[in-house]
Automatic annotation (TrEMBL):
Family membership: Belongs to the periplasmic pilus chaperone family.
Record domain Pili assembly chaperone C-terminal: where: 175-237
Signal peptide as annotated in the record: none
Subcellular location: Periplasm
Keywords: Chaperone, Periplasm, Signal
Protein name listed in UniProt: Gram-negative pili assembly c-terminal domain protein
A Pfam family per the record: PapD_C
InterPro entries per UniProt: Ig-like_fold, PapD-like_sf, Periplasmic_pilus_chap, Pili_assmbl_chap_C_dom_sf, Pili_assmbl_chaperone_bac, Pili_assmbl_chaperone_C, Pili_assmbl_chaperone_N
Record's keyword annotation contains Iron: no
Keyword field contains Signal: yes
Domain Pili assembly chaperone N-terminal, chain residue ranges per copy: 27-148
The organism of origin for this protein: Shewanella decolorationis S12
Length: 245
């Protein structure tokens, strides 16, 4: 994996601060996720620099390590180019090429794409101590086998919920029968005139996730409903309801 040029590293005289904070980044990806079909030779990813000055960007992938760096990156994708410059208010494409082995053909596999925004040091303060703040963004890569024939837009219809009472609250079992990852934005359990938020982020294909919610005031009154929102391939929100009898 390529590393930053020596001139950039030597310019950081005080310290180097890397912040994982997408909302502050001015270099952004045009989509919220990457879908990589298993029969694709490569996938192009578009970045946009919204700053009035150029930025250098470094790209790498990992399997599941939010603290990953270009030096310990273990994702099975080759990024070309791995380091590039984006001019002010311009876009830039880079390519992702799958370089790993065989993966399950009956469900998606998940990886992560990281891109690090490296702004220039101020010329007005050349020779003085400066701090270079580098912003790291992280998005999901869904490796999708072409053998899957079902429609990813129907993921929400293959989600079900079971609710059980536990000491001090309830336990919600979120079941995903689909071959796709289910990414949730919002999940609410409705019982009578009560509403309880259930913290669910993502459930793997053909899997489930148990969520314990401690709330002694919530009373389970059947039938109950679950209102939930799923993120689709394009970053859009799709709302569903599921009735628990």
């Amino acid at each position: 994996m390529s590393i930053l040029p020596l001139s950039v590293r030597l310019s950081v005289l005080i310290s180097l601060l890397i912040i994982v904070f997408p909302s502050s980044a001015s270099v952004v990806m045009t989509n919220t996720r990457v879908i990589y079909p298993s029969d694709a030779k490569e996938r192009s990813v578009q970045l946009k620099n919204n700053d009035s000055f150029p930025n250098v960007v470094q790209v790498w992938t990992d399997i599941n390590n939010s603290e990953s760096t270009p030096e310990n990156a273990d994702g099975p994708f080759l990024a070309l180019p791995a380091i590039f410059r984006i001019e002010p208010n311009r876009g830039q494409l880079f390519r992702l090429i799958y370089s790993g082995g065989e993966l399950p053909k009956d469900r998606e596999s998940l990886f992560y794409l990281n891109f690090l925004q490296i702004p220039p040091l101020s010329k007005d303060n050349a020779g003085e101590n400066q701090m270079l703040v580098m912003l790291k963004n992280r998005v999901k890569i869904f490796y999708r086998p072409v053998e899957i024939k079902s429609n990813p837009e129907n993921v929400g219809r293959e989600i079900s919920f079971n609710v059980n009472k536990i000491n001090g609250g309830i336990e919600v079992d979120v079941i995903n029968k689909s071959p796709f990852y289910a990414s949730f934005v919002d999940v609410k359990l409705i019982s009578g005139n009560q509403e309880l938020k259930v913290p669910v982020d993502m459930v793997e294909p053909k899997g489930n996730k148990l969520i314990k919610v401690y709330n002694q005031q919530f009373v389970s009154i059947h039938p109950m409903k679950v209102k939930f929102t799923i993120v689709n391939d394009f970053g859009g929100f799709i709302k569903y309801e599921y009735e628990i009898k």
